[in-house]
Amino acid sequence: MTTTRNTQNTQNTQNTQDTQDAPLTLVIGGNGKTGRRVAEKLRAQGRPVRVGSRTGEPAFDWHEPAGWGAALEGVDRVYVTYYPDLAFPGAAEQVGAFAEAAVAAGARRLVLLSGRGEEGAERSEDNLKASGADWTVVRAGWFNQNFDEGFFLEPVLAGEIALPTADAVEPFVDADDIADVVVAALTDDRHVGKTYELSGPRLLSFSDVAAELSKATGREISYVPVSDADYRAVLRTNDLPEDFAELFTLILDGRNAHVVHGVREVLGREPRDFADFAREAAATGVWDV
Predict the structure, then answer these.
(1) Cα–Cα distance measured from residue 39 to residue 264, given in angstroms and rounded to the nearest whole number
(2) CA distances from 68 to 100, 133, 222, 279 (A)
(3) Tens digits of per-residue pLDDT, 142-182?
(4) Rounded CA separation 33/240 (Å)
(5) CB–CB of 121/114 below 8 Å?
(6) pLDDT tens per residue, range 69-100
(7) CA distance 181 to 253
(8) What does DSSP say about strands 49-52 and 109-115: parallel, antiparallel, or unpaired?
């Protein structure tokens, strides 16, 4: 028994030491769709996390570079997400400046959440790579969670999704799959210097999405195509950037209308299907009216 206790005590001491020695990760947007999941998964592995947000301690704000140093203090690696989107004007310059600040502060690994098919996002990728960090780029398209955690929640509750997307199709990707890939990139040296493109397992039109949501919720949810002008009016009414309308036009022009295999490449498994997401989300009551 003594030998067993001593062995267990040694293992417990080693586990505690490993946790204490684990590098600190700054998760920018740590309260968002992917950031929250990345933080949770890292903590579940015993890895210390600092949430980078305007309400964090210390606070992080993309538009307040003077505060970046405090957020980066003691940080070894960073999950970089940018709001509202890397394709928006000024994003590439801010990401580049932050990446340089991170490396100067001692952060050696940067993992960037980028967008599939967004030329503007590629400028941000290039600026981050130029910082000299060990980098990984994770490119993703539309999230499943846009419909239960994001700006499509209210339309789903109202029973009508109105967008200027016509017959466009998209291989919607799950935020948990993205987070699993990001955690792998943050913790495994094999992913340094790699760019991964992620998608779900199949293409869906927004009519298909509405049908899956209808099936999951047991009520009628429809997709209604609208003009670009009408959608811009909706964005203005809700105090959202009209650049979103241009982004929809850009990334839903067919450039992403194919499945990619980054989830399988990194994780060795298939990505989550939208129907499974919809069924599980509906069970939480998020779409109950």
Answers:
(1) 22
(2) 11, 17, 44, 40
(3) 999 999 998 899 999 999 998 887 788 999 999 999 999 99
(4) 18
(5) yes
(6) 999 999 999 999 998 889 888 999 999 999 99
(7) 26
(8) unpaired
